[in-house]
TrEMBL record:
Residues 146-157 have a biased composition (Polar residues). Residues 158-169 have a biased composition (Basic residues). Keywords: Cytoplasm, Cytoskeleton, Repeat, WD repeat. It comes from the Eukaryota. GO terms for molecular function: microtubule binding. Pfam families: Beta-prop_EML, HELP, MAM. The lineage of its organism: Eukaryota, Metazoa, Spiralia, Lophotrochozoa, Mollusca. This is Echinoderm microtubule-associated protein-like 1/2. One of its GO terms (cellular component) is mitotic spindle. InterPro entries: Beta-prop_EML_1st, ConA-like_dom_sf, Elp-1-like_TD, HELP, MAM_dom, WD40/YVTN_repeat-like_dom_sf, WD40_repeat_dom_sf, WD40_rpt. It comes from Mytilus galloprovincialis.
Length: 547
């Protein structure tokens, strides 16, 4: 019996050993499978990355092609609408007003146009010539004689004065001129002549009539606004876009036809084209109606002439002087500058119409504003005597002012040129509170424990504040060792100064300019040199130089 049990135990052990060997073989096989799968996945990952890179390049190329296709489709739709409008038109307006003739004739009534797109009117240009004016009626003048009674003269003079007063009182009422065939009315005190149709022989101003079924449609615009604005003319999809009064004109120079965007309520002042070459943004001035004619920006479709967005109602003051779409992000943002006293700069989200940031700009007129072509959050504006670089970060706009080679922007202050070379440093005090400081310091530089000699040239003209030089140890407060305040003798000339700086363990040198009480207080420095050793008459070793 014991032998049988031992044989059974041996069989069990042999069976377990066989299972272990099989399990080991299966484990090795599964690990080899896992390694193979990992290799295949890595190879697939490399292929996927290469495929994604190729597709990204292809998408960028196709984006450019899509923009070109949009422009082509917009031009095709415009031409189709023009053909449909010409088919619907049964008659063409005369090139000049036709006056009343002795023999009346009948004219066929004009049928109104029907176009598939709103606000699209395409007709050949018509020019109106001024009709000849009739001779003025002369009233006989009564001559004075020796037998004439003075009472009669006074009486006739009073009668003439009363008639003149009466005519002056009613001179602004509508007046019908049958000889010229026009009706004169007054709009805001200005006379406007309206010519009647050729088949109208007489017209009564006092007669009450019903409103006609037909409505006037804009045919052609003669004019262009360029006296007080810039960036006001663009070429888009075969049409020249510009504005005149409250109308944006899309003029086809080949066919001599026009389309008009009539969404604004007052004069248009600026214009910008979206990067997709389809959308257009236009800004208007403030109108007489405070509620409905506030300055704002309208974004509209150049093909259908439909308004897409209305931005900034209630944000701007006086008018919108310039605007621009962002370039890097496909026109997702719009920057706008108004004509308030501070020329505020606004940034909007185009699709949501939400204001992202705004800040005060410059008191001088701003002529243009543009987004940086490769940085979506960088904006540049230029104007009279200034150029400013803006950065949009976390809903705030920060500014850096550019410096021109020559005089400072403010009048009667600052130098007209640099003391040495082409550049200099100055404190611009316009739009800055009194007592504000500008500091140039060596705190970030590693100066050795030694005495120094500081020399520079300074310019203080107009009503400047104070220019000081401080020195001391980095671990303690600095001490003022030189100071100048107010206008200096011969203010148009640069002054040279040399200052000996005592020795400190961790030396720090600062030059500080403080604003005075006037905007004509620019303080400038140039040719700044820091030398060692302490005696300024010995051989110098130049450490810092701005020239």
């Amino acid at each position: 019996m014991y032998l049988a049990v031992e044989h059974q135990i041996d069989d069990v052990f042999h069976t377990a050993s066989a299972l272990k060997v099989k399990m080991d073989e299966s484990t090795d096989f599964s690990s080899s499978i896992a390694n193979g799968v990992d290799g295949l996945l890595r190879q697939d990952q490399v292929e996927v990355c290469e495929r994604v890179t190729y597709l990204e390049k292809k998408v960028r190329v196709q984006e450019d092609e899509i923009v070109c296709l949009k422009s082509a489709v917009a031009d095709i739709l415009r031409r189709l609408n023009q053909v449909e409008a010409e088919k619907a038109q049964n008659s063409i307006l005369p090139t000049k007003p036709v006056f009343k003739s002795s023999t009346p004739h009948k004219t066929t009534p004009r049928t109104p146009r029907r176009t598939p797109l709103d606000n699209v009117y395409v007709t050949p240009p018509t020019r109106h010539s001024t009709p000849p004016s009739s001779a003025k009626s002369r009233t006989p003048i009564k001559k004075w004689g020796s037998m004439t009674n003075s009472t009669e003269l006074n009486g006739s003079h009073n009668v003439r004065k009363m008639a003149q007063r009466k005519n002056k009182k009613y001179s602004k009422d509508p007046q019908w001129n049958s000889e010229e065939g026009n009706l004169r009315i007054y709009l805001r005190g200005r006379p406007v002549s309206l010519y009647a149709p050729s088949d109208l022989s007489d017209y009564s101003v006092d007669k009450e009539v019903t409103t006609p079924d037909q409505k006037l449609q804009l045919e052609y615009v003669f004019g262009y606004r360029g006296r007080d604005c810039r960036s006001n003319l663009y070429y888009l999809n075969g049409e020249v876009i510009y504005f005149c009064a409250g109308v944006v004109v899309l003029h086809n120079p080949e066919e001599q036809t026009q389309r008009h965007y009539l969404g604004h309520t007052d004069d248009v002042k600026c214009l910008a084209i979206h990067p997709d070459k389809v959308r257009v943004a236009t800004g208007q001035v403030a109108g007489h109606d405070r509620k409905d004619s506030k300055p704002h920006v309208r974004i509209w479709h150049s093909t259908s002439l439909n308004t897409l967005h209305v931005i900034g109602i209630g944000d701007f003051d006086r008018s919108v002087c310039c605007l621009s779409f962002s370039k890097q992000d496909g026109g997702a943002k719009l920057c706008v500058v108004d004509e308030s006293n501070e020329h505020e700069l606004f940034v909007y989200d185009v699709e949501k119409g939400r204001k992202l940031a705004n800040t005060k700009g410059s008191q001088d007129p701003v002529l243009a504003v543009e987004f940086h072509p490769s940085e979506p959050n960088s904006i540049i504006d230029v104007g009279k005597g200034h150029i400013q670089f803006w950065t949009l970060e976390s809903g705030k706009l920060t500014k850096k002012s550019g410096v021109f080679d020559g005089g400072t922007p403010s009048s009667n202050t600052g130098p007209t040129k640099a003391a040495e070379g082409s550049y200099y440093m100055y404190t611009k005090v316009s739009n800055i509170a009194s007592g504000s400081r500008a500091v140039l310091t060596t705190e970030s530089a590693s100066l050795t424990a030694s005495s120094f000699c500081l020399s520079f040239q300074y310019h203080m003209k107009g009503l400047p504040g104070t220019l000081k030089v401080f020195a001391g140890d980095k671990t303690s407060s600095l001490t003022s060792i030189w100071e100048k305040s107010g206008v200096q003798p011969n203010p148009d000339q640069w002054k040279n100064v040399t200052i000996e700086i005592p020795q400190f363990n961790n030396p720090v040198i600062s030059i500080e300019g403080t604003r005075g009480n006037s905007f004509r207080g620019d303080i400038a420095i140039d040719d700044l040199i820091l030398k060692t050793p302490s005696r300024c008459c010995r051989k110098w070793y130049v450490i810092i130089s701005t020239s």
